[in-house]
Amino acid sequence: MTDKTININVPVLARVEGEGALDIRIENDSITDLKLRIFEPPRLFEKFLEGRHYTEVADIVTRICGICPVAYQMSAVYALEQLFGTQITPWINAMRRVYYCGEWIESHALHIHLLALPDFLGFTNAPAMARQFPAEVRRGLKLQGLGNEIIKLFGARSVNPIGVKVGGFHRAPEADVVTALVDKLRAALPDAKALLEWLATLDFPDRSQEFVSVSLQHPSEYPINMLDTTLVSDAGHKLEIDAYEDYFKEHQVPHSTALHSHLEGNPYLVGPLARLNLNFDQLPTEVKETLNNTNISFPSNNPYHNIVARAAEIYFGLLEAVRLLEDYKRPGAAAVEVTPKAGTAYGCTEAPRGTLWHRYEIDDKGIITFAKLVPPTSQNQARIEEDLRLSLEALGLDNDESTLRQHAEQVIRNYDPCISCATHFLDLTITRE
Amino acid sequence: MNNTLIVGFGSPYGDDQFGWLVLEQLNIALQGRKNIRTICCDRSGIDWIHQYQPVDRLIFVDAVKSDSPPGTPHHLTIKTDKLDSLPTTYSSHGIGLREGLSLAAEVIELPETIEFYGVALEQLDSTIASPAISKQIELLTKQLLKTTPLCNPV
User: Among A11, A18, A312, A324, which one is least packed by beta carbons within 10 Å?
Assistant: First the structure.
């Protein structure tokens, strides 16, 4: 038996963010070791939060991610409001839902058109794809821009927005500005529907796998924010937010600076596909009908259907924003009074990439003494490794290294990892014996 | 018709406000001039593309990190078919100005050349721009006004 080691260096793994590597060991035509190595330094945001007043949290956590800052703000403010017993108004809850829809639309549109779709259509990058599909890319950029406009409406800017506080918003948008935006959102609904219909026709490899989907669930609406939700799985879990740590365990692995998370010892999936798998019936009729007219059935165990789920959530996000904004009236106050109290605060919302769980310890002066944030990419890491193993074996391990590397990159990108969120370049080392 | 679009990149922090502040000054001077549009962006990738309408002249303004002393002006004109010569910089999800322009070149009608005006930044730690940068805001605003056909209102 010969031991053949081949190193393949990809200088820049475009279309994901962060720094990582993949090591694969193949013995007798089976994978005996596979590690997605994440070596980006820890960012220490949880430590930054210690000693800060609760009023500063929303403006600190917005800096964690340039793509999903709203999610970090939302998990934080809902956690603190629940501990403090703050009763936000229906207007605040509804407008936060709109604000979050903006982030889903911009994040999903960005991932579909610039990061993931070139893989599915056989292009090396988005500009090359745009040469063949200019109208589709223009449509995607338009949708992404609309998502950013919604975020700006409430957050003053789309990058690291600052409009949210514990108790509500700093200010309510003017009615005429909202009316103008609603007209644009309504006009874009056919674009979102067309995007979903188009993506559903892609020729997806059949890569059905056994995995557990996890997401929030609400009794009457598609899950985004935290009020009245429970954490559910298709393995039968139905948990209160504060019971999260009884079931989900983070652990350090030697090859990653990002923690791996398991549900009762096993990998699991969070994100658009998991949400759709668990909450299909809560989607608006228009989205359900569009999906029902495709050849894809949900729930789906094919991870490649993640891109279709993202498109479905763009369509949903636009419909939901229009629904909640079309009769907009500017309220007298954009926030309610808040009185802090000591204790443990638990928060959980649905970030574009999946469930984002927070826990804070607060003293009687409203100072954060401990913070724990569990982002979706951390939760998906073990699932990504499991998917890589299954997908590469299904592809055929006797393929050349270039083919294996490209396939591995596509599998990773399909999860839209954000380990800064993730992997800026991928050094793939394959050892064959 | 000589349409011009000036895109200013920036943030509310220190010298990174350069692009926004130049556009603020320009907008005061350009009141009523419909042949010149400005767009403020808070990231340099693709956000300007969906607001774009074909123009004869496209200008980007931003603070830049360089080895030059703070306040040093930088100017670059590049042919649209030579965008590959722009440097790749670290940016969110790998989508910076070069990547955004490469994408734009495929989906919208860009002019034959694109101009970049920058200034070497000093600090990002306050909400006020450094004196050296403030001086360049004034100078670049005057320069852009001088080279843009204000005498031809639509």
Answer: A11
